[in-house]
């Protein structure tokens, strides 16, 4: 029995009607029939209110619904939440209504809009989330928009990432065998500063220092695994991490894997030659099974002490939480360098499961949000097995 004189089945039916009609209908339900919502049902109610709340019906913005001019990041997360709460057919209906009611139809359906729109990470996340809804006439412009985002990230990160990886991986033992391409400029200059001539402003080196040739250092090759959460809230992070993976895949001195997950695990490594294709291989939204993905990544590891795993996630685990903690602990104990990135973003502090983050951090596994411009430095520190400097990070 639920309340006085109302059966459990009747209470569940009332709850369903309340979800359909929205919070504005609360006063029309009997007090004994107002059963508290579960956490999932509250999320469902909020999701429905974003589209079907009264303020979105009359456009006044004065109604009791929850939707009050969502920003792109919030809208992207909300779209992702739908996949967790509703069936695929229901999601399609609600997303189509969102396009109509939230003023997104012109954006997604008209190529000219995307052509003239300045690159924006949140909008790129939204386009990837709704890529299956975009009509054929706008698909090419959507891809071009994503490509412009990729190009901006490449300009921002590629050179620094390659330099930092080279500094961490290729700077091994020195050799007396001279090679212009292997000259260690920094060490040569530092060791010969005593021979600096002030008049000519020139250093006259007594000795040159050379790195080992790459062919003699294959035994020192490193593996980097990017394990990327595809949930709706991780859209911006997924884009940055994916492009980062493509940059790393082009560096011969490291072996790179790019893995994406929601409730299923997808290995995207073969798509790394084209970052746009890789991004289109990501399916934003849905549930989250981090433990299953970490288990898959564990199978990719041949030499733990020379492997770095970046787990990009908000840690909102719907799978085996205890199993996830155990797997991370085992990886760290085997010698793998594990880093959890709660977000890769400039758009504010990450939203994540604080309890899981605290438990992982207690295992001496770094766990924090990272601005994109700090990624190269972070990568270098991790590859060098140094304690990560999290100053200025989230």
What is the overall pLDDT average?
A: 80
SSE succession: HHHHHHHHHEHEEEEHEEHHEHEHEH
The biggest beta sheet is recorded as: 6 strands, mixed
CA-based shape: elongated
Tally of helical segments: 16
Q: Numbering strands along the chain, what is their spatial order in the largest sheet? A: 7-6-5-8-9-10
Any idea of the CATH class of one domain?
Alpha Beta
Q: Brief overview, please?
A:
The chain is an alpha/beta fold. Among the domains are: 153-169 and 219-383, von Willebrand factor, type A domain (Rossmann fold), CATH 3.40.50.410; 173-215, no CATH class.
Characterise this structure.
The protein is α/β, with parallel strands linked by helices. Among the domains are: 153-169 and 219-383, von Willebrand factor, type A domain (Rossmann fold, 3-Layer(aba) Sandwich); 173-215, no CATH class. It contains 16 helices and 10 strands. The strands form 3 sheets. The chain has a 6-stranded mixed sheet. A two-stranded antiparallel sheet has the order 1-4. Strand 9 (337-344), helix 15 and strand 10 (367-370) form a beta-alpha-beta unit. Helix 4 (72-85) runs parallel beside helix 8 (121-129). The radius of gyration is 26 Å and the shape is elongated. The two termini are 48 Å apart.
């Amino acid at each position: 029995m639920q309340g006085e004189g109302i059966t459990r089945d009747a209470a569940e039916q009332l709850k369903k009607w309340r979800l359909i009609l929205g919070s504005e209908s609360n006063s029309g339900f009997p007090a004994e029939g107002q059963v508290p919502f579960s956490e999932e049902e509250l999320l469902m109610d909020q999701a429905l209110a974003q589209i079907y709340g009264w303020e979105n019906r009359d456009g006044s913005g004065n109604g009791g619904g929850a939707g009050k001019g969502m920003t792109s990041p919030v809208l992207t997360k909300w779209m992702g939440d739908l996949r967790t709460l509703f069936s695929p057919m229901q999601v399609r209906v609600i997303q189509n209504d969102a396009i109509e009611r939230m003023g997104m139809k012109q954006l997604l359906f008209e190529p000219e809009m995307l052509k003239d729109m300045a690159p924006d990470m949140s909008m790129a996340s939204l386009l990837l989330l709704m890529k299956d809804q975009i009509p054929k006439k706008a698909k090419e412009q959507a891809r071009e928009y994503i490509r412009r985002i990729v190009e901006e990230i490449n300009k921002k990160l590629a050179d620094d990432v390659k330099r930092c990886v080279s500094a961490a991986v290729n700077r091994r033992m020195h050799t007396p065998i001279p090679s212009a391409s292997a000259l260690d400029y920094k060490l040569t200059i530092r060791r010969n500063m005593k021979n600096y001539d002030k008049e000519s402003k020139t250093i006259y080196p007594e000795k040159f220092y050379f790195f080992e040739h790459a062919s003699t250092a294959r035994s020192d090759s490193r593996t980097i695994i990017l394990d990327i959460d595809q949930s709706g809230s991780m859209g911006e992070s997924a884009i940055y991490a994916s492009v980062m993976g493509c940059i790393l895949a082009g560096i011969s001195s490291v072996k790179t894997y790019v893995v994406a997950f929601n409730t299923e695990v997808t290995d995207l490594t073969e798509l790394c030659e084209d970052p746009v294709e890789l991004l289109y291989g990501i399916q934003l939204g849905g549930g989250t099974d981090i433990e299953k993905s970490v288990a898959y990544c564990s199978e990719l590891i041949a030499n733990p002490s020379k492997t770095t795993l970046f787990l990009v996630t908000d840690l909102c685990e719907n799978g085996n939480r205890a199993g996830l903690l155990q797997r991370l602990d085992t990886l760290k104990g085997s010698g793998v360098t594990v880093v959890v990135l709660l977000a890769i973003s400039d758009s504010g502090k990450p939203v994540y499961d604080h309890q899981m983050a605290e438990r992982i951090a207690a295992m001496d596994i770094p766990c924090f949000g990272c601005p994109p411009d700090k990624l190269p430095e972070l990568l270098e520190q991790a590859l060098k097995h140094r304690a990560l400097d999290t100053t200025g990070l989230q």
